[in-house]
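Q: Give me the 3D complex with MRU.
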Amino acid sequence: MFKTIEYIDGVVRMIDQTRLPNEKVFVDCKTVEDVGRAIKTMVIRGAPAIGVAAAMGISLAADAIDAPDFDAFDRELEQKCEALGQARPTAVNLAWAIARMLRVARENRGLSLPGLKQRLKEEALLIYEEDISANKAMGNHGQTLIENGQTVLTHCNAGALATAGFGTALGVIRAAVNAGKNIKVLANETRPFLQGARLTAWELKEENIPVKLITDGMSGFFMRKGDIDTVLVGADRIAANGDVANKIGTYMVAVLAQKHNIPFYVAAPVSTLDLSLATGDTIPIEERSTEEVVTFNNQRIAPENIEVAHPAFDITPNELVTAIITENGIARPPYTESLRQLAGKS
Ligand code: MRU
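A: Here is the predicted complex, encoded as structure tokens.
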């Protein structure tokens, strides 16, 4: 099994997701700026993996600070945190992990500088370990929703590559397979960045989980034919009312699922909940470069000077979401109540 991210001897090593599936190469980040660049350029992506990378990045930032007292250390660390927080806007795990690291630094202001740096390294590793455990717990809860012999449609990549390991939506599939269920996966290719074609297809194939790749426009066709039993996706941010931000195209799949009476499940750790937002309307949606839309395999596929839009995420309203699977249990509507309860369990 590959490692998405590792923290070894002052280096944060990531599998380069921009080069998969053709090449399995690694990127070594030695500074918080390197980590910020890796997040921005999608070397590492997926909400929980971004959070883990950020925590490790803050530990690298702390290691590089040489300050006479805690206040000077804190000022410098806060600046690094602010800069790293700009890397990508939609996945709340980025801000969540940074806030946790800063809080831990402040709670330990009495430690010596080397002690504080060591404490922050431990916290980053704890965030990494907790993410894997959360995914396994999510898998155990979620697999009860999937029956033997079912075909599951997924969108984007919510797998081991998008987390510290095991995955959220793909973690649920892994857990179902581990429980002895015969599961088939249909993977939407996920235009324009092709996380489904490049990453989900690769990741599932590595483990011999049956997967068939389709283009995004095919999901309705297969639902109407009765070939899809369940939809299972991850999330980048979930508002208090259960509105879900996820990869562009998710909303379209959710509407189709409702039309065909197919359950639409979201798997996400509580670190992806943003209960400070009442609804999904105020979740910031990342606009990515139009280059990603007008090129395919480095080849231009649209006329020069064409007007292009590229929102990288959309919002699926809560009424289309059958259930939200977290490490603390499964939330059902009304989400304002159920999510608050599950978030309080951590
Ligand atoms: O732009 P990306 O690849 O970071 O988008 C990732 C997604 O939308 C995933 O579905 C989401 O982060 C959940 S990952 C467990």
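A quick observation: The radius of gyration is 20 Å.
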